[in-house]
């Protein structure tokens, strides 16, 4: 069936191209197409300018001291981002630990168990769409209140930061996991159910394994968003710079975007240079994660 | 033979040897189901949590500061200048992002071949992956001094709404492009074929047939972009300014709602003080504003899904 549909669609597309061809060359049409090309590549051009400009500014500081040294006010020319990079890695780990199992569990319930006709499940649905669009900084306020409620008085800890980021990416993880589960065809589940498996057995042994590439892609994209985000961390009270490594859940930390943010208020040129170099490090991390997600999607995702 | 057809979970009444699988109790699975449902309900708990987390300090805040002082145009607790600044920056961002986002969406949906789309869409979406603090730094150190002051010769301040708005606009291009592309791709092929059959070319079909047909989805895309722009923090905190300013001149520096929250939270105010609680009052206002915008967007998406 699918082959027939594809062939039919292709024929249709080809005839379309043939139909309007003589009129496609009018000046208006060409100007329109040029405008579309411009809007498509405008963003990419900005991104290239951004990366090139930042790389040129940060070039003098592409050395190992940038990642091995702690931040220093006394010697701006050798200031480093060791605490920030380690902090970001810590935050990423704990954020994943909090958000990923919860997110997958919620998605599995909504996709495999919940009765979508029930009003409360529809409320969850709308609520999720809404949560995904709540400003990041509001999650910072929520994390502050939650920490206070649980009786933690210290601010700027690994726990506070990763709690804020986990809340931030939870809706993203749930929504992408649901999409991944939904793309697993009905027949896979039916086959398993017909052999006598329960809904949970089917989910655990068939549906979830089949959806892993999609889930991994969504989770990695969520995490890459989390590590670049500074707004909730500012609210949670993370320090702009520290001179020690993070040790555990309750230790004070800083993060790479936080360090960059705090450096912008410094007027010395050396700090600007260091911030530019740190931005390149952050971009490599974030865009690297994005690339990883795309590779996983293209390599492992099956089209059923 | 009848035994085999009736055997299984649903039958088996009175037939010997037919196992009734439904009867088998699986306590572990019941537990699993409860755990899963709890995780799903957590999303509701988060929303309630946000409201509760914000309301407590806000009540304290209004114990000390009157409504009049909060919703006034000047003074320490005035919120109106923050709202106008947010509005200003958001309008500039939308002026950039709406035409460019829709243009990109039209190309991806109506012009690009399937293979080109597979490559072009992630490229556009890459823009959304760049951390906002990076955009903010770019606005502050490149857009304002190099682009606005040197190349365009504008008399702008060190921080100004224009640079922040422009860069914010670039950041939300992918949000608008991606959703608008979905909406236009959902327009049935038959409508395009009808248009081509009437002798319209691709541009006419795109603008006069596909665009109007996808309008509610496109509106949803723009509204979601609006919500992103209102809630974005780091770009405006870095590049828009840290002083309350009622000015409607985009060349001036002005503090937005999110910029104010970042500024106040990063400052030295002790937790529980009135100055600190202002944070939650502004946060609640921001949450309510974006909530209204999001609900409109979700309703619009519903409508375009039902249309075809």
UniProtKB/TrEMBL annotation, chain A:
InterPro entries: MetI-like, MetI-like_sf, Phosphate_PstA. It is a multi-pass membrane protein. It is found in: Cell membrane. It comes from the Bacteria. The chain crosses the membrane at residues 30-52, 85-110, 131-152, 158-176, 273-296. Residues 85-293 form the ABC transmembrane type-1 domain. Residues 10-20 have a biased composition (Basic and acidic residues). Pfam families: BPD_transp_1. Keywords: Cell membrane, Membrane, Transmembrane, Transmembrane helix, Transport. Residues 1-20 are annotated as: Disordered. Belongs to the binding-protein-dependent transport system permease family. CysTW subfamily. Part of the binding-protein-dependent transport system for phosphate; probably responsible for the translocation of the substrate across the membrane. This is Phosphate transport system permease protein PstA. It comes from Nocardioides nanhaiensis.
UniProtKB/TrEMBL annotation, chain B:
It comes from the Bacteria. Part of the binding-protein-dependent transport system for phosphate; probably responsible for the translocation of the substrate across the membrane. Residues 83-297 form the ABC transmembrane type-1 domain. This is Phosphate transport system permease protein. It is found in: Cell membrane; Membrane. It comes from Nocardioides nanhaiensis. It is a multi-pass membrane protein. The chain crosses the membrane at residues 34-59, 79-102, 123-143, 163-184, 205-226, 279-301. The lineage of its organism: Bacteria, Bacillati, Actinomycetota, Actinomycetes, Propionibacteriales. Belongs to the binding-protein-dependent transport system permease family. CysTW subfamily. Keywords: Cell membrane, Membrane, Phosphate transport, Transmembrane, Transmembrane helix, Transport. The keyword Membrane applies. Residues 1-21 are annotated as: Disordered.
